[in-house]
């Protein structure tokens, strides 16, 4: 019998962060029928973005990729909180990774792999989403990366 996503997460030695509260006028996770959308996740410690700044100029690619993985783990924590557990996730449909990029930086796709590789580890081929890896001039709290995702879930 295949492992459930919750079992895979535990087997990887990962702990899903508690779902955070909205710090604005939005829903951190919105579930509508068989779709769940997780709002943009940035990695914050004590109210401050971890490794703030532009990727390439102030944050190296490896650090940004690691933070992308952590932001994706936060998104999974939000999903688990909204759904009761991750085992209701049937497919990750789309992940968007926004990378605060220095001028001329063109390796956003490498940063985004931190998200998609984790999703594939946890959900197998059902975790291989459509993806956006977009360079932007800035993100909230000067974060270097932000991750949002869309999943199909059981009702």
From the N-terminal CA to the C-terminal CA, the straight-line distance is 23 Å
List the secondary-structure elements in sequence, H or E: HEEEEHEHEE
Q: Which percent band covers the strand fraction?
A: 25-35%
Summed up, the domain count is: 1
Rounded mean pLDDT is: 95
- Per the CATH scheme, the topology name is 60s Ribosomal Protein L30, Chain: A
Uncertain runs are: none
Radius of gyration: 15 Å
CATH H-level name... which superfamily?
A: RutC-like
Describe what you observe in this structure.
A hairpin with a 2-residue loop joins strand 1 (29-32) and strand 2 (35-41). The longest helix has 23 residues, at 61-83. The model has no long low-confidence stretch (mean pLDDT 95). The chain is globular. It contains three helices and seven strands, in the order αββββαβαββ. Helices cover 30% and strands 28% of the residues. The protein has a single domain, classed as 60s Ribosomal Protein L30, Chain: A (2-Layer Sandwich). The protein has helices at 5-11, 61-83, 108-123; strands at residues 29-32, 35-41, 44-45, 48-49, 89-100, 130-136, 145-153. It has a five-stranded mixed β-sheet, covered by helices on one side. Helix 2 packs parallel to helix 3 (108-123). By secondary structure, the protein is α+β, with helices and mostly antiparallel strands.
């Amino acid at each position: 019998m295949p492992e459930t996503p919750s079992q895979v997460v535990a087997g990887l030695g990962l702990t899903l962060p508690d779902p955070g509260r909205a710090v604005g006028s939005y829903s951190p996770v919105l579930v509508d029928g068989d779709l769940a959308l997780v709002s943009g996740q940035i990695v914050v410690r004590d109210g401050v973005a971890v490794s703030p700044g532009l990727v390439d100029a102030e944050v190296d690619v490896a650090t940004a990729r690691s933070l992308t993985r952590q932001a994706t783990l936060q998104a999974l924590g939000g999903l688990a909180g909204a759904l009761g557990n991750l085992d209701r996730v049937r497919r990750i449909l789309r992940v968007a990774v926004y990378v605060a990029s220095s001028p001329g930086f063109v390796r956003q796709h490498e940063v985004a792999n931190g998200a998609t590789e984790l999703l594939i580890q946890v959900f197998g081929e059902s975790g291989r989403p459509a993806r956006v890896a977009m360079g932007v001039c800035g993100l909230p709290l000067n974060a270097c990366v932000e991750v949002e995702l869309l999943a199909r879930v059981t009702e």
